Structure formats: structure tokens, C-alpha cells
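Now for our specimen.

. . .
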Amino acid sequence: MDPIKEMYARWAAGDMGADDQWGDVTAEPRGLDYTEVSAGGVPAMWLSPHGAAPGRAIVALHGGGFVGGSLYTHRKMYGHLAKAAGVPVLLATYRLAPEFRWPAQIEDAVTAYRWAAARTETVALAGDSSGGGLAVQVALREPGAAALLLLSPWIDIDPEQTATSYEENAATDLVFTRPMVRELIRQYLPDGTSGLAPEVNAFHADLSGLPPVYVQCGSDESGRGDSERLAKLTGARLDVFDGQLHTFQMAAGRAPVAGEAIGRLAAWVRPKLGL
């Protein structure tokens, strides 16, 4: 079975495993150095491919619904991206809900981005799932990023979650259901904070100033509606991978489709970085 579908089948059956086991679906990339750093006080990790182009970098923000994920769950996937693009990736984490609620996650993401941008000539932003939504929020607050690379981005923080893709993919996406996403929103937003506010929900912000955007998602994921909506609003390049689920790129090195997706991301972003 596909490693991503196998993992989600276990999750749907109630076996979530330890958080750090999430990264087990990704093969270990070779030819990289990993260096943990404090990015202005935010825990981060440089993923540096041997022979990387100087003066360029990608700042990546991991997913996990704002309540999970870490440098260690996602270092291998973004390591594959770093190696394919030939540039270092600064993978940053952030404070997690419900202990820390909005806007703590955005604050940490902005801090890490500023830290990297001050040390690098040209910077792109990347993120998967909730990290994709954070990457958009960073770009809205900090103009100057060369590009946005978004993997199954979760943008819509509206508790109503009206996207029709929930119904369309109910038989294939058994994990990211509307009630599950609503619960994540409940844990993320402080009481009294509207999920429709522009500073919370990028779908209600002015997106005209965003850099070039490339969005990838799976045809069978319930969150496909966010990717399609964002592409429509921004004119982004959108690749919908047939038969794939949420953040299927996590299977890089183990599933050919994940490697193909990472390769497309790298080929698209290199010219944006001046390579």
C-alpha cells in the first residue's frame, strides 16, 4: 500500500502513534547536513545540501494542524526539497495550540522568516497543511519573498468549513473530516476571535501583493477546496495529483508520485530564486 494511505488508514482506526513517527513515511535523503539553530529565538533547522547555491534559501513551515508536527517530523521531506532545488532550507517550528493560540504561530513564523531574510540574498517560502497557511500569512506581513510553495495548504479558518470537497472526498479522506478540522480551529483560535478576520483567514485578506504561488494537493483529500480556491484567487499554478491524499509529498523517497511532486516544486522555484 502507498505509505501515506497506509498511515492515514491507521490514523482513521485510532492508531495515531507518537508524533515523531509521522516522519517515518519519508525516506532519508542523502547528501545533506542538518544544523539546529535559534532563528531569532524560534527553534529551526538548516537543511543544507552539499554544493548548495549561495545566497538563496527557502524558509519552510511544517504542518500539523497547529497542534502537532515538529522539525523532526518534516526534516526529511523538506530535505528532499532542499536537495532537489539545490538550496538550503530553513525549517522552522512554532508554538503549538492549544497551549499557545493564535497569533503565536504567526508571530514565530514571521520571526524565523525575518531571521533568514536578514542572512540571505533571496528567500522563498514553503509550507504544508497548516504550515502552508502560515506561509501565506508571513508573505502578507513581510513582502519580499521570491515565491510561495504550498503543499495541501490549509487556508480557511472559518469554523463553518463550507468547501464541497469534504463531501466529494468523504469516502477517500477518512481523517480530515469537517468535525475534525472544526475541532482544530477551536483549539487554535482564542475565544472571541473570528475565523473570518483577514489577519486570521487569508481568504478574507487582500492577496494581490503575494509573490508567485505554486500549489499542490491531492485529488482525494478533503482540503482540496482550499487549494483550488487559493489558486482561483491568486492565479497560482495548481497541480492536483490524481488519487493522492493530504501532504502526500511526505512519502518522498518511497513513493514515485511524491518524488515527482518534489521535483516539480524544485524546478519551478529555482528560476524564482535566480538559479
